[in-house]
Amino acid sequence: MSICEDKKLEGLDSIRGDFPVLAREVDGRTVNYLDSAATTLKPQSVIDAVTRYYTEFTANIHRGRHRLSEEASDRYEEARYKVALLTNSASNEVIFVRNTTEAINLANHCIGLTKDDFVVCCLDNHHSHFLPWLRHGNVVLVEQTEEMQPDLEHFAELLKLKPKVVALTHCSNVTGNYIPLDVMSKMAHEAGALVVVDAAQSAAHRKLNFSESYIDFLAISSHKMLGPSGIGCLIGKADLLRDGEPMLVGGGVVDYVTADSYQYRKLPHKYEAGTPAIEASYGFGAAIDYLESIGFDRIEAHEKQLSKAFIESINNKPNLACLGQMSLENRAPIFSLYVKGVSDLSDICRALSDSYGVMCRNGHLCAQPLVDHYAGGQVIRMSAYIYNTVDEIEAALEALNSVVQSYV
């Protein structure tokens, strides 16, 4: 029986040993890591893949014909192929970038907005999926329902403005809500808009299907998918990428250069100037292997258990309020909490870390318009993933409740 088959048969609690950080202690307490919406922990197989680049290759890619360079190049392109398979896209539609932020800025650059162009955004867009459009276009925001979902009637009204771009967030990093992506992207396309989707929070949780969607550009990040930081992808329709201009030019993006002209390489290399994060690509490929070995159906089932634990524990604590829907449908185990009357939650977050070993995040979560609108100040976000347990969720919320009681 293969390793992949083993993982599919085992309960997810058994994988905790794959993540070295979970062996750490803080003041005698085991780390309770609930900050996966910021960045996920890395399994040992990913760490080993990154190390392997330095111990077996340490050569640049696409730059020479010696053995180490060719082997390094093959593994780099293998990682690209794995992204393509994961997202059901073509390999030449996968552009390696540093992160989701760079991916969205590159999509913006390819599209070439003017201030006369309308861009439809949602209130829960991350700053990375809001500021590029605000800087270059004329942004209009979709109203939200009481469940903090996009109001589809208002969305339809905004589409009558004939926006050039509709910028959607598949899963909110604040509320954990999934939007009706298929419905909204189809509506946008029928209105003649290009659809740009931030999938940073969803790619590690749900299978994406780029080629059979109405999405024109899709952005993901390795570090939110069990992989290394420093690498992400812009996945774009090939015809749009061929017509677009790269943000950076230099080594690696041209077939030839004369004193007064140059010729770009074919996709995807046209957009990948300079030496990339080669070692990170190896880790990204290993992370995808790890996710596939578990299976997205099992990931989703496990996350429903975690979300159920969150909801039941929060409902028993009157001092805590939660942004977003308190149901198991169409949500990730991402819960942003606020305490009425307490605007700065920094000390509470520090107490959770240093006294209870609970690692979570406070602030506006790079979505300040949304958080200010609903919470009027900071929130504390607890975000779980495949290596977390129901016991950890319950313990973290009991700890938070205890700390909060000393503030209210």
From TrEMBL:
Its cofactor is pyridoxal 5'-phosphate. InterPro entries: Aminotrans_V_dom, Aminotrans_V_PyrdxlP_BS, PyrdxlP-dep_Trfase, PyrdxlP-dep_Trfase_major, PyrdxlP-dep_Trfase_small. One of its GO terms (molecular function) is cysteine desulfurase activity. Residues 33-395 form the Aminotransferase class V domain. Gene3D superfamilies: Aspartate Aminotransferase, domain 1, Type I PLP-dependent aspartate aminotransferase-like (Major domain). It holds the Pfam family Aminotran_5. It catalyses: (sulfur carrier)-H + L-cysteine = (sulfur carrier)-SH + L-alanine. Keywords: Lyase, Pyridoxal phosphate. It comes from the Bacteria. PROSITE patterns: AA_TRANSFER_CLASS_5. Belongs to the class-V pyridoxal-phosphate-dependent aminotransferase family. Csd subfamily. This is Cysteine desulfurase / selenocysteine lyase. It comes from Thalassolituus maritimus.
